[in-house]
């Protein structure tokens, strides 16, 4: 893939708010087919676009990139059989290919900012929309009166407070800033949405009254635990601009807490297990373009010539081809996993 095409793909994924990771080769020791500066992009589905070396290390790179996407943190990865002292900030893996080369990569994930939905068209709501965009959040809004929202450059503006309509923007955070204009309807719709957190611009006394109203409307106590009111830190706000500033500070705080929780969960999941499965050595790291007579080895990602494939098995009604006996043995250890990869590759090829 040409560099400009890779950049175009990055921009498209950014525009579509899709997570991805860019992998850059920062060291390559022969006999590896990679070179310093080579780049590839791994999308959220695990598809690799670009070139960072042969097929045997492909599975390691893809899984490491997906882990970086989940945590939101960059990482360095070394794939080598060299005897070197371990480094705390380098994730080390054995080189599975018989060529026994070595490479190091830097993986930089790009994770879209959370989707925030502001409910209301009050002065506070309008100011909150502006401030939330300035701190990098993806902002949509919903209100009974939507005309004041039209000029704010929001991703989407919704008429009214219907939970199904609100879910259309897949909000992670909702800020209710109706301030007396259909508060109960707006808050109920927010709590019935998929949002992880709902913030309410209100005094403690008013918030307590609205909590009771939500219980009467059938909102469970467990779901009410997602409600934060007042919406942000106490900054002794008086004007709509000051109130919005405090509310957006609350959005920023909760955004970072959710990101940290996701990173901690990813680290915890990986702590007790090997992050990337050790792959068997392959007989070749040559990379070739697919043709209708070629098949992607689901273990290492190498393209196989179906007509001349020597390592073939039938599993669950599907014929699977391998570049070497080692990959076939690895497949047999966990056929369900690799069949899922094979089916996903075939589906993408058809679409």
Keywords:
single chain; 351 residues; alpha/beta; Rossmann fold; 3 domains; 6-stranded mixed β-sheet; 6-stranded parallel β-sheet; 10 helices; elongated
Overview of the structural elements:
By secondary structure, the protein is of the alpha/beta class. The protein folds into three domains: 1-112, no CATH class; 115-261, NAD(P)-binding Rossmann-like Domain (Rossmann fold, 3-Layer(aba) Sandwich); 289-351, no CATH class. Helix content is 36%, strand content 22%. It has helices at residues 3-15, 58-71, 123-134, 163-167, 183-191, 204-216, 221-224, 240-271, 325-333, 335-350, and strands spanning 20-29, 39-43, 48-50, 75-79, 90-93, 102-110, 115-119, 138-143, 157-159, 173-176, 197-200, 227-228, 294-296, 303-305, 311-315, 318-322. The strands form four sheets. It has a six-stranded mixed beta sheet with strand order 3-2-1-6-4-5. Strand 2 and strand 3 form a beta hairpin. Helix 3 packs across helix 8 (240-271). The longest helix has 32 residues, at 240-271. The radius of gyration is 25 Å and the shape is elongated. Mean pLDDT is 84; it is low at 272-292 and 347-351.
Summarize the SSE layout with pairings:
Elements: H1 3-15, E1 20-29, E2 39-43, E3 48-50, H2 58-71, E4 75-79, E5 90-93, E6 102-110, E7 115-119, H3 123-134, E8 138-143, E9 157-159, H4 163-167, E10 173-176, H5 183-191, E11 197-200, H6 204-216, H7 221-224, E12 227-228, H8 240-271, E13 294-296, E14 303-305, E15 311-315, E16 318-322, H9 325-333, H10 335-350
Parallel strand pairs: 4-5, 7-8, 7-10, 8-9, 10-11, 11-12
Antiparallel strand pairs: 1-2, 1-6, 2-3, 4-6, 13-14, 15-16
Helix pairs in contact: 3-8
